[in-house]
Amino acid sequence: MTQRSITVLPGDGIGPSIVAAAIKILDAAGCQFQYDYADAGLSALEKYGELLPQTTLDLIAKNKVALKGPLTTPIGGGFTSINVTLRKHFNLYANLRPVVSFAGTQSRFENIDIITIRENTEGMYSGAGQTRALDNSSAEAMSIITHEGAERISEFAYQLAVKEGRKKVTIVHKANILKSTSGLFLEVAREVALRYPQIETNEMIVDAVCMNLVMYPERFDIIVTTNLFGDIISDLCAGLIGGLGMAPGANIGKEVAIFEAVHGSAPDIAGQNIANPCSVILAAIQLLEHLNMQDQAELIRAAIKKTLAQGKTITQDLSGSASTTEFTDAIIANL
């Protein structure tokens, strides 16, 4: 059988250690991937003088799928966000951020199962029209929403709901104030919702969503929204299930998909072997599902669930004392 090749971006800070943990688990689960490693972030800047070399972009394009650790974009100096650059370059329009409760994480809620679907290329994150007065007296940025972009992400959300047997999609907006941009997004999402009468549709203003997520998270199933709102809401959702260490992310386009840990590179704990690798392991599960490798995905998910529920070998962020290596080995033992 020909091995499937995936591009691996180890990332910065804790990235290399948690990505190595995920790969060790993929191998133990019998996935038989060929790993093509590529540089991005600070390691690439040091080697090549740029954060995202063309060779890395070419390797991602060649393999169509990538597993990515957290990357650091230096603040200031004219550096553009690496994540935003990747999303734009490959037109990764859908950001898929699931959060699921795991027993043993000591989170505030049980039975959380929410997917936030965030439009990934438009809105305030597009970087359009960013200017600042020379005397720093004012600054401007543009938010651009297109009919095509809003329809595409809404279709993605409803198609996912049908595929996964979900019951409800909540359209999140601020159309009462942002009548042009958020208003267009809401109108288009409503049009798409009419094509899926079997799925319950709910509309909520973003601030009300945040309050209700904290008080009544069980009311949510799939959330679809614009870029900035989705960024904030998905982090809030991560807080419901134990923090960003338990939250994976997928960036999906027509040709390419990149799966990642959604948290930062945590340079303060880099090299200490204490980081929770779950975010990138769960991202690897998303990658497997994208490749229709459901058996391996379920095998790894069950092993994570069992390891956390046992409560013997869990990392410090989840109130345990296990190292990254010990936690990884415990998951492999439970495969």
TrEMBL record:
Alphabetical keyword list: Oxidoreductase
A single BP term in Gene Ontology: tricarboxylic acid cycle
Protein family according to the UniProt entry: Belongs to the isocitrate and isopropylmalate dehydrogenases family.
Record-linked InterPro entries: IsoCit/isopropylmalate_DH_CS, IsoPropMal-DH-like_dom
Listed name of the protein: Isocitrate dehydrogenase
Domain Isopropylmalate dehydrogenase-like: 5-331
Lineage of source species: Bacteria, Pseudomonadati, Pseudomonadota, Gammaproteobacteria, Aeromonadales
Naturally occurring in which organism (per UniProt): Oceanisphaera avium
GO molecular function: isocitrate dehydrogenase (NAD+) activity; magnesium ion binding; NAD binding
